[in-house]
Design a protein that fits this description.
Chain lengths: 249, 249
């Protein structure tokens, strides 16, 4: 392929991160339009009927769901494989991706990150301290207990790196943005796994962009990414005003 | 395989229906434990960390997400294929499945079916007439407008029957339970598609069980299914008391 794949979506999103990590592992060049979904314009709504990021656009498809995008990238660029060869293990990998996308999404993004970052900085609302307290005391420990029983003491879940490892690890970057660190005494496997994963080149190379974006007002994301020589798309699907209502068709 | 696959989940659920249709097409025998997710016991919560139905259990896996189950059934029983061969079409089929699972799930299950059936009959709560009115006036037309632009005038979405056709069609059975019919003048392609799909043997054979279950109190589902000679699992993962809180780990 001669032209880079286009990715619409912010470096801050765990679902965008999942796809960027997969693109890097597959050796596929990309350009990014760094919008967050609340800031998408009408053209964005057409491309992404659920107003989700990332959206991937290439010469063959426009896809607006990270799981579907990763399956497509695996089908189109088969090596290195990110889905186990064994049928039962492959199903287990897909299940763990779904668990991460859904449950870790609920807890780490909608409950934790939303309360400490999106509510105050996008909507100008106060953090709901009671809800945040429950998230930290109940929901996050439930998720970490589940992961602790699933994750390996060393290496990856299924021998080689897979979409399951990536899908789980991406959420701990957003946890870090919200100043949450896994307690290594209580969940040693999970803490070790997160540390190993984030040290991989495919994660480490994104960290400078993420760390900078999380400290940059949304309106300045694009100009700061130009300064940082990020692989930026010329076109933007963003607006300057946040829009409530994630669902549009 | 000598023993039938085990499916935990009610005939009323669109996600269970999707998997039963796929099992029938693949020629895989199954037994069912007809619980609804609110009525699952602690063993069910262990098998299904998101307390979703269906759960599939066979000699190799325990899986608790309908999309992951369908991918597994395709991998394990490749013919007839339910995913298009062409990589871009396969991605499009997976997207439409995701759209159906998420958006049609929100609108037809959580908004429509929940209001007219689950709220009154499981929780003893009145239907929220204002919310229902908005669903019928805004959300359902949005979904049907989207589908009308995607669905074919004849036949299936990708030539042969695929997981996308099935995933969309299952929700219209729940719409019918809630006495909603697609307006053939306003959405002729969608109305025609639904009629064609529900006439297929893989759908038609489930309809007697569904029609009977929707009129049967939950506590009597199992005994009525015995009368009807449904392929019933001996074991049950159900309780007699509904439990709030879909998420448990």
């Amino acid at each position: 392929m001669t032209t880079p794949v286009k990715i619409i979506g912010s470096y801050i999103s765990p679902y965008v991160r999942k796809v960027l990590v997969v693109l890097h592992i597959k050796g596929v060049a990309y350009e990014i339009d760094p919008i967050i979904p609340f800031m998408g314009n009408e053209r964005f709504s057409k491309l992404s009927p659920l107003r989700r990021i990332p959206v991937l656009i290439d010469d063959q498809v426009t896809l607006a769901d990270s799981t579907v995008i990763c399956e497509y990238l695996q089908d189109r660029y088969p090596t290195p494989a990110l889905y186990p060869d064994d049928i039962a293990q492959r199903a287990r990998a897909r299940w763990l991706e779904e668990f991460a996308d859904t449950r870790m999404g609920d807890v780490f993004i909608w409950q934790l990150f939303n309360q400490v970052a999106i509510n105050p900085f996008v909507w100008g609302q106060k953090t709901d301290e009671a809800a945040l307290k429950k998230t930290l005391a109940e929901d996050i420990p439930q998720v970490l207990n589940y992961l602790e029983a699933e994750l390996p003491a060393e290496g990856f879940l299924f021998g080689e790196l897979s979409v399951a490892d990536i899908s789980i690890a991406v959420f701990f970057r957003n946890a870090a943005f919200a100043r949450f660190q896994v307690d290594t005494a209580r969940w040693p496997r999970t803490a070790g796994f997160v540390k190993r994963m984030h040290a991989l080149d495919c994660f480490a190379r994104l960290i400078p962009f993420e760390d900078r974006m999380i400290r940059t007002p949304i309106a300045r994301h694009r100009e700061v990414l130009i300064e940082m020589q990020a692989p930026l798309m010329a076109e933007s699907y963003g607006t300057s005003t946040p829009q409530r209502g994630v669902m549009r068709i």
